[in-house]
């Protein structure tokens, strides 16, 4: 896939664990998860990742800051309507978000009486009348790539018939004028077909506020945060302390 122009990024070290614990996790646990993921990625590909997609679209304050400190080119951690720069709890962040804009197959099939054919038709309709900034669709190899492969093939054929150009997130990111990306608030919420909370793109941030705030250089080298330094590689396994007090909130983290 990388040879065909697609970015290979990080989707988490322990996806189910991230979905259960990320919302209430501290800096040490969050950084440890990224430590493990970044180290394994560098072992496999010989370089550090430039893209992140949060499992279950779940983030926390520390994860937002780590993305900036690691100098990611872009990320897709949110659900929303168009590319933007995130503002989380009053903190202006510099890594562009390319949010998932379309519902997933799984979410559409959780609607009462829904069938795979209905999901395909709905996704074609949403793209037909979609925004000029394009749409972002999230799929998984084990679902759309296997169990629902015939419907995915029909969906791709339908999008091409509508005149859509199917591109990678990298191509979408490169087509954007990053200096003109709007700043939007990010908060937790839900979408139809999925009960678990996730990071949602909200309303635009105050006009002109970005020019009055000095943002940290997201290309800078890694710095200690809350007494924990995030290494560039993993030399020894890190065992985060258990979260016995946190209850499972999502039986379907994907």
Q: Determine Rg (CA atoms, Å).
A: 19 Å
**Beta strands, count:** 6
Please give the domain count.
1
Would you identify the regions where 5 or more consecutive residues have pLDDT less than 50? 218-254
Mean pLDDT: 83
Helix amount: 25-40%
CATH class: Alpha Beta
CATH architecture term: Alpha-Beta Barrel
Give the class from helix and strand content and strand pairing: alpha/beta
Strand content: 5-15%
- Shape field: globular
Question: In which order are the strands of the major sheet placed?
Answer: 4-3-5-6
How is the biggest beta sheet arranged? 4 strands, mixed
Termini distance?
21 Å
What order do the helices and strands follow? Answer: HHEHEEEHHHHHEE
Tell me the number of helical segments per DSSP (H or I, 4 or more residues long): 8
CATH topology, what is it called? TIM Barrel
Could you please describe the fold and organization of this structure?
- The chain has about 250 residues and is α/β, with parallel strands linked by helices.
- The protein has a single domain, classed as Alpha-Beta Barrel (TIM Barrel).
- The chain has helices spanning about 15-20, 25-45, 60-70, 105-110, 115-130, 145, 150-160, 170-175, and strands spanning about 50, 75, 85-90, 90, 185-190, 195-205.
- The strands form two sheets. The chain has a four-stranded mixed sheet, with no helix packed on it. The protein has a two-stranded parallel sheet with strand order 1-2.
- Helix 5 (about 115-130) packs parallel to helix 7 (about 150-160).
- The two termini are about 20 Å apart.
- The model is unreliable at about 220-254 (pLDDT under 50).
């Amino acid at each position: 896939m990388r040879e065909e122009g697609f970015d290979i990024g990080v989707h988490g070290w322990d996806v189910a664990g991230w979905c259960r614990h990320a919302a209430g996790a501290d800096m040490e646990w969050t950084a440890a998860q990224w430590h493990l993921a970044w180290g394994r990625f560098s072992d496999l590909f010989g370089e550090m990742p430039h893209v992140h997609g949060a499992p279950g679209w779940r983030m926390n304050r520390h994860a937002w800051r780590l993305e900036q400190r690691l100098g990611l080119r872009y990320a897709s951690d949110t659900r929303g309507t168009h590319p933007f720069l995130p503002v989380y709890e009053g903190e202006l962040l510099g890594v562009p978000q390319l949010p998932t804009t379309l519902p997933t197959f799984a979410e559409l099939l959780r609607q009462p009486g829904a069938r795979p054919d209905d999901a395909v038709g709905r996704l074609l309709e949403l793209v037909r009348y979609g925004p000029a900034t394009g749409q972002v669709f999230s799929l998984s190899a084990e679902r759309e790539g296997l169990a629902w492969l015939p419907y995915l093939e029909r969906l791709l054929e339908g999008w091409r018939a509508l005149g859509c150009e199917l591109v990678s997130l990298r191509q979408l990111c490169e087509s954007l004028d990053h200096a003109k990306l709007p700043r939007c608030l990010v908060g937790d919420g839900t979408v139809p077909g999925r009960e678990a909370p996730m990071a949602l793109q909200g309303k635009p941030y105050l006009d002109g506020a970005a020019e009055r705030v000095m943002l940290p250089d997201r290309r800078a080298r890694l710095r200690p945060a809350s007494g924990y330094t995030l290494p560039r590689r993993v030399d020894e396994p890190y065992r985060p302390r258990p979260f016995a007090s946190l209850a499972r909130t999502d039986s379907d983290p994907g």
